[in-house]
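We modelled each protein-ligand pair independently. The example shown here corresponds to the pyridoxal-5'-phosphate entry; the chain sequence is given first, followed by the ligand as SMILES.
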Amino acid sequence: MGVLARYASLLPVTDATPNVNLEEGSTPLVLLSRLGERLGIKLWGKLEGCNPSGSFKDRGMVLAVAKALEDGAKALICASTGNTSASASAYAAASGVPCFVLLPAGKVALGKLAQALMYGATVIAVKGNFDKALELARLAAEQKGCAIVNSVNPYRLLAQRTGAWEICEQLSDAPDWHVIPVGNAGNISAYWAGYTEYKRLGKASKLPRMMGFQAEGASPLVTGKPCPAPETVATAIRIGNPVSAQLAKAAVAESGGEFNSVTDGEILSAQRLLAALGGVFAEPASCAPLAGLIKLKSQARLPEGITVTMVLTGNGLKDPDTAMSQVGRPVEIGDTLDELLRVIEGSAVK
Ligand SMILES: *Cc1c(COP(=O)(O)O)cnc(C)c1O
């Protein structure tokens, strides 16, 4: 069951809302025990890469597209660092409506570009960064009457609350800390709104501290001012002027949380650690929170034994280039058993 059907009573869904659905949501919450032991916490990973287009964007996109169709939209438009375009293109394809996606030229991970093109969207590479592409998309949407499905679209954030609701159901309560990467700052805001809503409804007994992590080269919420030339290997959070900055600041302030930044090197090493100790392959942006937890631990700022939920926002397969740039190549052999046995004997397994 997709999130619109599963959470119909908590979302602005009516009889007139088309039943858009790719079975998004209901993603696994996995106990990352080896990583948790190292950090001295109970660490849970919310595997948002298991969504139909491979990122959490599907949770909000399904409602944004359903409402756009309900309102009679003839086309969708969005600017994207990659995953929004992949998600919008997927739901547009499933709904039979055209989709225009604006991407910062040369700054989108290969898998995401392949997705938008495969789903049949009109893909437009803008010679400028994400913030510029969003500005153009907003202007074009106004002039051409396309529905804009960026997170400036309020339905996106409303339906992204479902991630927090699922976590409360999976853990039977809210966690102590909720750690999450922050780009445009919509998701951290939506999770906070989701947790507070479940607390209000008596479905959670407490509220988590919201801990947002940005890449050092794109950290406007840490420095307190927009970043005119954002740069990071974590392209999904390469954003200098977050649309939901005010909501995110409120979420962090109300929850007693923090914004922190991590370097690209720390992000990539966390990505390898998550894969090698957790068995989970997530894209670089998703790994900023793990890098942050490691950093907080080294500063003795990570309380012992707490329950932490970490949103692994996107699938590692989306950015194969970045992954391959950090790992070795396969061991090549001929086709004999001898050669194979030599490799095995030369490894740690004797
Ligand atoms: C969009 C995205 C983010 C950032 O989410 P915001 O809501 O923009 O803060 C983080 N990770 C991935 C993989 C994303 O696609």
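Residues 2 and 261 are 34 Å apart (CA to CA).
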